[in-house]
Design a protein that fits this description.
The protein has 16 helices and 14 strands. It has 496 residues and is of the alpha+beta class. It starts with 6 loop residues before the first helix and ends with a helix.
Length: 496
Amino acid sequence: MSATVDYDDLLTRYEPVLGLEVHVELNTRSKMFCGCPTTFGGEPNTQVCPVCLGLPGSLPVINGKAVESAIRIGLALNCQIAEWCRMARKNYFYPDMTKNFQTSQYDEPIAFDGWVDIEVDGRTYRVEVERAHMEEDAGKALHMGGATGRIHGASHSLIDYNRAGVPLIEIVTRPIRGAGEKAPEVARAYVAHLRELLRGLGVSDVRMEQGSLRCDANISLMPIGAEVLGTRTETKNVNSLRSVERAIRYEMTRQAAILDGGAKVKQETRHFHEADGTTSPGRSKEEAEDYRYFAEPDLMPIAPSREWVEELRATLPEPPAEHRARLQEQWGFSDVDFGNIEAAGALALVEATVEVGASPGAARKWWVTELARRANEAGVELDELAITPAQVAAVQGLVDEGKINDKLARQVIEGVLAGEGEPDEVVAARGLAVVSDEGALSVAVDEVIAANPDVAAKIRDGKVQAAGALIGQVMKAMRGQADAGKVRELILSKLS
């Protein structure tokens, strides 16, 4: 593990500068330049053809839906849309790229000069977007025989080309300055904003755990008051919001230790390690000019008409800020309650749960408390938990119907997360249904009254509030599965 310095201490000497590159896999049915399917999780090398394998004599044809999605993304990022642009061949030699070049865009991106505003702890930060360009994804290397799944220590590697040719949009920021101590949180908020924006556009499922949205985080430090940017590192393929924040925070403390020691930061790629939140060296980091780019001769230039651009602009959903304001008003939540939803990364989940029938209050309760706690304990993002909004709504439905109570509902959620089935199946399998049968309840009430004569006497004397103690005893005796309302009725009727 590399030497680090205290985070608060480094901020007295250095200003962090960030640059974020976010790769978005589009949810088109076919790949960028061929008709192969893009379904996630297929058997290795079953979703390939001569085009995406780069075999001689094959000719690409650009995916019109991908171009449309790129324009809509650019518009949502307040970008200008190019009147004319081309694809290029980005030459590099790596086993995951079948053609020894990636079809991408270089100096002529389809969208450029944009911006988004994000809010962190009540302050608004403007993140400038340099470009959003189209390209194809590479294959995926599977390193075998090692302990970490990385190439270091592996005995051999396999390549799955199913992902090769999947449509990508790469969104690149300009250097982000002025964030100071909030730099890690600003980066996380920016990626979260993009995820919300892209999900609203319907152009990607933005599942970071599956790699359909991945972030490369460029970090450098410069002495406070200096104007020349420091040497940057690029932490590759960070695959969760939590990890974006952790990776940047760690890299800042690592670089500060190097600079404090009088050494120079090495310009390189870094790998992020989820287990301990550290980064490790990858390869020497090249600049754009270190690649060789050539205009792609097999594809026509792209020239979206201004009429088409305006038609696509009209399809944009409401901006995230307006969407949030509308939901808060619609749900009737205070600023604090709504802020807790956003802080937990639960907004989309709460919204989806409400859409399938749960009340806003119930949806917030489960996602922001019980499920957020479980996600935190597991060290995963909330939307990575093995439970869907529909299942959460179903759990609440069982509560509303009186079949289970809140205490039992937590056990149902536990069963769903463990893969035991749908909520009603978990209730049946675990025997969690609330007991409403008066016969069984009456027996339990009689036993509790007999065991607590002093409390029973108080109730007979008119101190009805003392019934709570007996209700608690009955619930304990019946493992929390008694109908509390009926238990209360029985106690009061027997002691009146």
